[in-house]
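Reading group handout, session on sequence-to-structure problems. Before we discuss, look at one worked example. The prompt was deliberately terse, the way you'd type it at a terminal:

> structure Peptide deformylase

The input record follows.
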Amino acid sequence: MAQQDTEQQHPGVLPVDDEGFVVDTQDCEEREADWRGRGTSRPITVVGNPVLHKECEDVTDFGEEFQQLVADMFASQRTAEGVGLAANQIGVSKKVFVYDCPDDEGVRHVGVVCNPQLVELPADRRRLDDSNEGCLSVPTAYAPLARPDYAEVTGQDEKGNPVKVRGTGYFARCLQHETDHLYGYLYIDRLSKRERKDALRQMAENEPRYPVVAND
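And the output record:
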């Protein structure tokens, strides 16, 4: 694996491959456990909370307070048994998400992305996957949603270094889903009115398995 070119950019937290994409599949258990061990689990905000429905602020300060936020996000993600979590899902309007997500081959990916931008793919690379999708902020609800089965995201890592992440299948869905969160979109916003209504009905009829923030 090639390390990031330090003459062109700061050395990253994780190594990169020959195409410049972060290698987020190594030492996953140790890295996730280290973050989680330093964090405090927070309740999840749910649909209707204003913080979920507006674009978050860019991360510009990567200091100690921010590092604690990331640790809390990993702890919260584990409590909720999620595969991805955006900062506004624990009530913080900052453009950062964490993930601990397998791809369709069962390979585990663990990482942090700040200020993400989805790379627009050419039409010949956009194959849609209409698998079911769920969200910790819409607990107990699921609906099929067509998304490209490959995704690339650019942004910064938890120290502010440039980073590129790519994924296929379920992991690609995660990258798109979490980036959406940071721009004020939930997956149910991409559904038809009937499908959205059904998802909200599922949520209303069931109890979440993790602590949530009640909407007043």
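Points for discussion. First: Residues 92 and 188 are 21 Å apart (CA to CA). Second: The first strand starts at residue 44 and ends at 45.
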